[in-house]
Amino acid sequence: MSFDIVQAFRDQDWLKETEQKLDRKMRYAAGKAKQVSWIPYTTENRQWKENRIGWWTNGFWPAHMWQMYRMTGDELYREEAIRTEEMLDEALRDFRNLSHDVGFMWLIQSGVRYAMEKNRDSYDRTLYAAHMLASRFNPNGFIRAWNGEGREGWAIVDCMMNLPLLYWASEETGDPRFRQIAMQHADTTLRYFVRPDGSCNHIVIFDANTGEFLDNPGGQGYASGSAWSRGQSWALYGFVLSFLHTGEQRYLDAAKQTANYFISQITDDWIPRCDFRQPDEPALKDNAAGNVAACGLLELARLLPETEGGFYFSAAIRILRAQEASDANWELDDPAIFTRCTSAWHDLPGRHMTMTYGDYFFTEAVNKLRGDSLLFWYPNR
Ligand code: GLY
User: Fold this and answer.
1) What is each CA distance from 105 to 55, 67, 342, in whole angstroms?
2) Mean pLDDT (whole number) for 295-307
3) Ligand 1 — pocket residues by CB below 6 A?
C-alpha cells in the first residue's frame, strides 16, 4: 500500500491556521497586484515589483491564484488568475524572447484552467507553449535552455520541470512526439547532470552539432562541481513528475537518488543553503529551493510503500514547518511571504529576496496536505 500523506499529517491545527494566514495574506497580495498592469515577480520597498512579460516566473502568479481558489473557492482569486493569464498573451506573441521555461509559464495556469473549466483559449495557449518547447529540441538529445548566440548547446537541470508540458501535449493530442522529446531530455539529464552521489550540475554545455559534452559551468550555484540547492530541487521534483507521466522506473530511482542527496545536505535548521557546497560565509539560504523540494518530496512519498514514503514525508514536513516558522512574513506590510529566497549565489542583489514562485510552492504543498488531488504539473490526470 502506498503512503498516504493526508492521513499521515496529524497537525490539523497548523494546517487550519496556515490556510487562514495564506488567505489573509494572499487576499492582500492580490489586491496590491490588481493596482498594477503587470505581473508580480518580487517586492521592493514592500511593494510588488515586475520583471519583463516574458520572464520565466510569470506563470507562478496566476498559478498561485488558482491554488488559492482551490483552497478557498473565492472568485477573487479566479478573476485575478484569468486577468493575468490574458496578460501573458503578449509574451506568447513575442515568442522569440521566450526560453525553455514555457512549462512554468503556461502548464500550471492555462493548463490548470483548461482542466477545471474546459476553456478553449487556455487549451490553445498551453498547446502553443508545448509546440514552442518541442521546437527547442536538439536531436542530439537535449532541449536548448536559453537564447543568444553561443548558447545553442546549453541545457539546464531546471528544464526537468518543463517536461510535464510536453507529456501533457502528447496525452491531449495523441501525438507521441512531445513525450519522446521529453524522455530523451530526461535521459540526457540522467546521464550528464545527475552525479553518482545524487548531486547535480546546473548547466551542461554540449556541442550543438555533435552532442559532445563540452563543459559544466557553475550557473546559479557557487561553482562548477557544486550543488545549487534549487537545481537539486528541480531535479528531484522533475524526476518525480517524469515518473508520474511515463511510469519509467529509472525516473523514480533518480528522484530518490536526488532526494536522498538533498535531505543528506540539510543543516539542523531544515532550511536549505543556496548551494550545498558553498563556503560557510555568507550563510546564504534559499526558501524557494526548500518549498520546491517539499512539494517533490510529498509527491515522492505518495508513490512509495509506507516504510519508505514516511522518510520523504517527514523531511518535507520538517522543511515546510521550519521555513514557515523562521522566514514567512504573515504581516500585511509586504505582499510577499518568504523572505530568504536567493536568485543565484553570485547575484548580490538577488540574495535573500522575495520571489513569487517561492511562495507558490508553499501553497502547493499546503494544498497537497489538505488533500487537493489536482496536481498542477499533471492537470489532466
Ligand atoms: N533558473 C530558474 C531558477 O532560478 O530557478
Assistant:
1) 9, 15, 20
2) 97
3) 158, 220, 230
Cell reading at 340 = 530568504
- Domains defined for the chain, CATH in brackets: 5-51+135-370 (1.50.10.10)
Q: Measuring CA to CA, which residue among 60, 15, 46, 82 is closest to residue 337?
A: 46
pLDDT confidence tier of residue 13, bands split at 50, 70 and 90: very high
Q: Which of 126, 148, 129, 145 is nearest to 137 (CA)?
A: 145
In the prediction, which pLDDT does 1 show?
A: 83
pTM above 0.85, yes or no: yes
pLDDT in tens, 142-179: 999 999 999 999 999 999 999 999 999 999 999 999 99
* Atom 5, ligand 1: residue with shortest CA distance: 230
**H or E, element range at 237:** helix 229-246
Cell 539560504 sits on residue: 285
The span from the CA of 315 to the CA of 235, in Å, is: 17
Distances (CA, A) of 141 to 41, 56, 158, 179: 32, 23, 16, 13
Going from the Cα of 35 to the center of ligand 1, the distance in angstroms, rounded, reads 27
Cell numbers 522566514: residue = 327
Q: 102, 193, 220: which to mutate for ligand 1, most atoms within 8 A of CB?
A: 220
Ligand 1 atom nearest 56 alpha carbon: 2
Which grid cell is 299? 509527491
SS3 263: helix
**Chain mean pLDDT for the chain:** 98
CA angle 53–374–121, rounded 5-degree value: 45
Q: Which atom of ligand 1 is nearest to the CA of 288?
A: 5
Centroid of ligand 1 to alpha carbon of 176 (angstroms): 28
* Ligand 1 center–CA 295 separation, angstroms: 16
Neighbours of 17 (CB within 10 A): 12
**Nearest Cα residue to atom 2 of ligand 1:** 158
Length of the chain equals 381
Tens digits of per-residue pLDDT, 41-69?
999 999 999 999 999 999 999 999 999 99
From the candidates 89, 94, 121, 158, give the one annotated as an active-site residue. Answer: 158
